[in-house]
Amino acid sequence: MYISAKKDEDRESLWRRFASGDKSVFGRLYTHYHRSLTAYCIGRIGNIEHAENVASEVLIKLLQYEKANEIENFEGWLFQVAKNECITFITKTARRKKLLNSNYKPELNRLPDVEIRFSMENIDHLIRTSLDEKDYKIWQLHQQGYDNREIAEIIDSSEKTVANRKSAARNKLKSVFKKLNE
């Protein structure tokens, strides 16, 4: 009971100092109230990131409020401002969503050009046609997770040859994709 009374006293004395013009205590007031304002806003908005932003806005409004000394019920004032800010946030979000939905209608059943150009089948075909048969086999084995030693055993070659062919294939594919992207 004593600890709780002490905290309330601290908040009360911080508030009195702030209301009398001592802006240096604002950081401590912010620390005391941001969490509870965020919790309140989460209940209204349902998103923690947005609620944290709204809670911060409420406290910034307090800092900018020129008649802080006229506030009779400090916590009541904070939570009333939080309620209003939540309503404003919800209204703006709904309005933006409505505008977006009315002004932007994505075409259904149509992939964007990028997705068509870079579908996995197209990429595999491009790689297959850009590399010779042996390099394509090495590339496939590499993509499946085999290391150079294992690939060398599978294709009956040396590790060094596999490493060199992978490097050459990588450079060739970089060039092909660069030209395609232009």
Automatic annotation (TrEMBL):
Residue span, HTH luxR-type domain: 131-174
Q: Domain named RNA polymerase sigma-70 region: which ranges?
A: 29-95
Under Gene3D superfamilies, the record lists:
1.10.1740.10, Winged helix-like DNA-binding domain superfamily/Winged helix DNA-binding domain
- Tell me yes or no: is DNA-binding among this UniProt entry's keywords: yes
Keywords of the record, alphabetical order, are: DNA-binding, Sigma factor, Transcription, Transcription regulation
Quick check: keyword Transcription in the entry? yes
Protein's GO biological process? DNA-templated transcription initiation
User: What would you give as a GO molecular function for this chain, any one?
Assistant: DNA binding
Q: What biological function has been recorded for the protein in this entry? A: Sigma factors are initiation factors that promote the attachment of RNA polymerase to specific initiation sites and are then released. Sigma-S contributes to the protection against external stress, thus playing a role in cellular fitness and survival.
As for family, the record states: Belongs to the sigma-70 factor family.
Name of the protein described by the UniProt record: RNA polymerase sigma factor SigS
Q: Which organism is it from?
A: Ekhidna lutea
